[in-house]
Sequence to fold (620 residues):
Amino acid sequence: MSSAWLQFVASGLTAGAIYALVALGFSIIYNASGAINFAQGEFVMIGGMSAATMWAAGLPLSFALPLAVGAAVLVALVVEKLAIEPARHAGTVTLIIITIGVSLFLRGLAQLVWGKGVHRLPAFSSEQPIEFMGATLLPQSLWVLAGAGVAVAALSAFYGRTLMGKAMLATSYNRLAAQLAGINTRGVLFASFGLAAALGALAGVLIAPIAFTSYDTGIMLGLKGFAAAMLGGLGSFGGAVLGGLVLGLLEGLGAGFVSSAYKDAIAFVVILAVLFLMPGGLLGARSSDRV
Amino acid sequence: MAPAAATASEARAGVRHWAAHPRSGGTLVLAAVIALAPLVLANNYSYEVAIQVALNAIVCVGLNLLIGYAGQISLGHAGFFALGGYGSAILASRYGVPVWLSIPLACAAVALLALVIGRPTLRLKGHTLAMATLGLGIIVSIVLTTEDKITGGPDGMAVPPLALFGWIVQGERVWYWLAGGMLLLAVWLALNLIESPSGRALRALHGSEVAAETLGIPSARYKLQVFVLSAVFTAVAGALTAHYAGFITPAKSSFMHSVELVIMVVFGGMASVFGAVVGAAVLTILPQFLTVLKDYEMMVFGAVLVGTMSFFPQGIVPSVGRWWARRQP
Fold:
């Protein structure tokens, strides 16, 4: 593999790992409620922004990062209680509009608290690029990949081994049956928002040292995460990870070999092509409608 | 056969029936509102807002046919809006096509595009359809931003004024009557469509596509037709907006603009033509008032949206209509 290839693959995978974390958040909330949470990108923004603020206030990174994730989780839980739960019986389109309202509210709040400027977080370790087979890698990219990998492993342990995780999985298969088995499905929706926000905020703090963060970074990251979740198959966790990595690679290679202005367009053309052929996504369920 | 025995009371009942019918009565009310609004429109600024309301309402009436009646979501209609505007602007300013011709040409091109992309897209359902239309809108937006030799790039381009046979349409008052007249035409067309067999077919496939198919309704063809129709409504409004404003930027094709249009439809009330008009009016006028809040604008708008959709999940007009119906003895 030539060094140019390696370079584009590395930058693509870094972005892809971030998209995968955001996509997981979309799938988790979709599984619990059947709705798309368009405020998912705002949790990413809140994570990055609060980490940057706490670091600027003098907190060491080892404290700032977990606190930032905690702050995003807290915001998500409040949002779920105040905005989502009262409307949980509304139709899907209405729920989508409510989450868009929430995202506008959070973005407006962020603009008020943090202003319109860009904020910066230092790299977790050295900023010195690593030379590797002719390509240069930022150490922060390795942090992103490792952080996303650990999060995915922890998530699969949570779903496979804890009672709460199994309850959430059961709810995603069949909400009514889960309710009949004594699972508190409202609690599952509440926990899903917290979990999705934690993953989003983690993505936010991991990417903040590479891409600057500002009050409106959530829009594009949210869209990419949604696209990645759809590409992999909405509701499938493996699909979310695969979709995120594929989307990141498409962008990285598209920007490197075709045109950086058209990298997003290339990625969306491929996603559309996949969806036309496989409407359920790469790893989505081959669902059939019940009439 | 002339109803020779028709008495005056029967005629009055006929008029009452005609006026109580949404197709005629509702259109009359809308016409009255448009005709009387200038009494309260004090200055050029309020005319500007009224023109924006009318043009946005045209989009929403079309989009509502797709979302509210046929039950198919689109998160990419801002793409059609911008293509209507850019198409007409490019034809007029770069190829010298007169504007009265460039608008229909641009809209015909958008119709053709919607026909081509609608065929594979509308086979998708629910969230996948939302994703596909979102992707199409973003692709349009990227092309408009990147092809700066033709479109002027991120800064946008100037758009020549609308001229009808040498008479240049300008001034807020003239534009107000033009936009109001177009809105009335759009509403009348939509109401007629809804009450036609096609409209019933659309509602049937909203209820259940499979059930509609078993009744012999070619659902794919109907969905495609209403998709193309809503794209044309949107492109007409986009072209008029561009010629009225005198310039256009790629922001008109952005994802946020698509979302705004869907919000207007859902806020006013899905499957209600007048709901779409009310939604467009409220959500066009509200931000004008919110600008006094400056930094709090976005927050308050978000909160209003969440609050309204929580209390009126069906949208404003259907919720108020139901409340009114309950009050009647």
Q: What stands out?
A: The beta strands of chain B are 157-158, 163-164, 167-168, 247-248. Chain B has 15 helices and four strands. The radius of gyration of chain B is 21 Å. Residues 34 and 309 of chain B are 27 Å apart (CA to CA).
